[in-house]
User: Fold this.
Amino acid sequence: MFSTSARWLCAPQFASAPYVNVFRRESEGKHSLPDDRPKHVFMYARRTFVLNGDFKKAVLRLTADDYYKLYVNGAYAAQGPAPGYPQAYYVNDIDVTRFLRRGENVIALNVYYQGLVNRVWVSGDMRQGFICELLLDGRTVLVSDESFRMNMAESRVPGKLIGYDTQFGEIFFAAKEPWGWREPRFDDSGWQVPCVKADHGYCFVPQPTPVLKVSDLRPVLIKDFGTSRVYDTGREIAGVWRFTAGGSAGKEIAVRLGEELDEGGHVRFGTRANCLYEDRVITDGQAREYEAYDYKGFRYIEVVPEPGAQAEGLYVRVQRYPADESLCQMKCESSALSDVFDLCRHTLLYAVQESFLDCPTREKGQYSGDLAVTSLGHLYVSGDARILKKALCDWMRSGFIAPALMAVFPSALMQEIADYSLLFPMIALRYWHHTGDKAFLAECEKAASGILATYRRYGRSDGLLTDVTEAWNLVDWPKNLRDGYDFAPDNPIQAGAHNVINALYIGAVKHHEEMCRILNIQTEPRFERLKDAFVSAFLNRKTGLFTDTLSSKHSAVHSNIFPLLFGIAEKEDARRIARWLIGRGMCCGVYMAFFLLKALAGAGYHEAVYDLIVSDGEHSWMNMLSEGATTLFEAWGKEQKWNTSLCHPWACAPLPVLVEDLCGISPKLLSGGEWTPRLPLKAGDITLTVPLMGRKVTFIRKGTACTLLLDGEVWKTARTGGQT
Assistant:
């Protein structure tokens, strides 16, 4: 990856410190790390150089641990890398051509080591530093070595912890900042030489996804209290604040961010998701431009200066995965469908960062269960399968910790959820269908085999799983939306065989057998036998519904969603179950809603699916909108969970279900599959455009006449009605 002359450069306190192994099974408990370990460490590093000749393209190859922000000749250029395990640590190739000039230039890095054990990064492990090289037209002209200079930034002090030890509030002391350090002419003669870490222990790999897209947004002033000003970005976003401040030296300016306003019109900076979003700036008597480092998820900003301090020119540096917003668009006569679609689309565009995050606030981690939903929606918003492949790679790499893979990755927090592991074959197949990448599918098949082998150890004589303690069993989240599921899946896990884990296991077997058919791999066919065993064990012949456990008479919606979705239920039972589920409505969380809608659509109840998407009940997307949502909530309403995140893309089910199940758009169409649109007439006329495997597909319906365009040309025609 790097020239042999490039060196890993780090701060002195990390140069000889032994690495901390933060990886362990969740059942082994949390790490006991010393309180005095380094945390919230900023290292400024810079290198000046002269360019005399001409060049066509300049690329800076760069990575850092935990994170960097890159400035070239004073201008922001990029940030990264995406979180990664040391044995596959991501490297960015950044095009810096437009920033360089003849004569003197400078590369400046703000390298951040957080030091916390959380879902965000693999941190707390005493790995810190960076490595880079500059290539002009493919030729290395500069590398990270002892010619760099560094300064340990004393101006940035940690404030209070935010969320699940996710990040720190930031306190910035202007008097301690080496102002101008990003500029070429800054005098760094008093700075230190970074330490060279020869045994850094990383295995570098190219980051398969681009660096984040960053753009500036001017929030609107909506309230001037005299002692503070409140600004609105218009919708929830992820990013950092920036403004110019001045006034008397030593005066403080508080910056408070939140997803909502309180009853008095101030920013609710202690959010529902238990994030205390308050940063502080202490001025030095000069007019300075300040900027936060670590991003937050928010909509509102309140700037609170002490008397004698001023803050002007506020704007937000918004960051997100670089998806083209124009690729996914919809116009529809149904205002409800339009509003729900827009809510999903905006969340998918602005909540996805370098990974498929569960949320950009409390946790900021990539959960496999969340990406089971989010990744499908993101494919139809962005048309970019690279981030899904990266997620699958990260997931498989977590196998060195647990054979059935981790639930959150890559990170230093150890969490294992059996339900999520068993979704791996389904998600791997999703990538295959959207790319046709058979070589990568073969890699995924090996991981899927390992997962199934791990759980097969819990099998009874009939193959069903019992006493599964490999990892905790989720069923649904939050717990109060499990519809009275008659089994305790959390720690400690109740003994015995329960429905959901077995249905997911059988679904994983089914998807693995499909993988093997595609790859021409001989495997023992087990799905039909397991299906029969499941029906025999869990079907209540009196009600025609599946029960939660072998001995229970209770049937939660969760116990019937997966048997319907995976084709475990026999045909007559499936119809009965589907009608029962429709009658129950959304007796589940927003995560499980994806599987519910998919199951009902697969059973042919498309009108019911549409009705659920646009319903206005207590458990609905319209309820989120009625409560002021501009991004999807973690639960159906703000008060339906004790720490509700108001930006949670795992609730995006309506978008992919509309595309695939109601409008009939999926990868199989490009290989000659039949097109059958199922969108009920009550939705009215509609035009929907989505990316599909590098092509642009547009669905148009006027009356009952449906047309499908491929790259602007008429491709297919059909007619649609109501219930199918």
Remarks:
- Residues 215-320 form a domain with the Jelly Rolls fold (CATH 2.60.120.260).
- The mean pLDDT is 96.
- The first strand starts at residue 9 and ends at 10.
- The radius of gyration is 27 Å.
